Amino acid sequence: MVDRLGESEREKGLGELNGWVYDAATGAISHVFKFKNFSEAFGFMSRVALAAEQAGHHPDWSNSYNSVTVTLTTHDAGGLSVRDISLAKAIDAIVA
């Protein structure tokens, strides 16, 4: 089992990400990604799915046409963990 991040660890991790927002009520980080069209959004989701499967850590997400909302939290830890920060970094690299 992985541990939930403390406040200073969480802030440090968020500082290494691009545009992710922490929600204290849910203990999760989220990001809304916008693309030119549905095809680009779906391609992004496919690449994220492969990265998530490789990491063994899967996002909560939704898609509406050219928009993909990704939410990350570690349910076993009861909030944000290093696994969420790592996957968020991988997702950031996909859109870079």
N→C terminal distance: 31 Å
Q: Going across the major beta sheet, what is the strand order?
A: 1-2-4-3
Question: Based on CA inertia axes, which overall geometry fits?
Answer: globular
Summarize the amount of helix as a percent range: 40-55%
Strand composition percent? 15-25%
Calculate the mean pLDDT score and round it. Answer: 96
Topology pattern, helix = H, strand = E = HEEHEEH
**Would you tell me the structural class of the helices and strands?**
alpha+beta
Number of DSSP helical runs: 3
The low-pLDDT segments are none
Alpha carbon gyration radius: 13 Å
Task: Provide a short characterization of the protein structure.
Helix content is 43%, strand content 22%. The protein has helices at residues 7-15, 38-55, 82-95, and strands spanning 21-23, 28-34, 60-64, 67-72.
Structure description:
The protein is of the alpha+beta class. It contains 3 helices and 4 strands; from the N terminus they run αββαββα. The chain has a 4-stranded antiparallel sheet, covered by helices on one side. β1 and β2 form a beta hairpin. α2 packs antiparallel against α3. The longest helix is centred in the middle third of the chain and has 18 residues. The chain is globular.
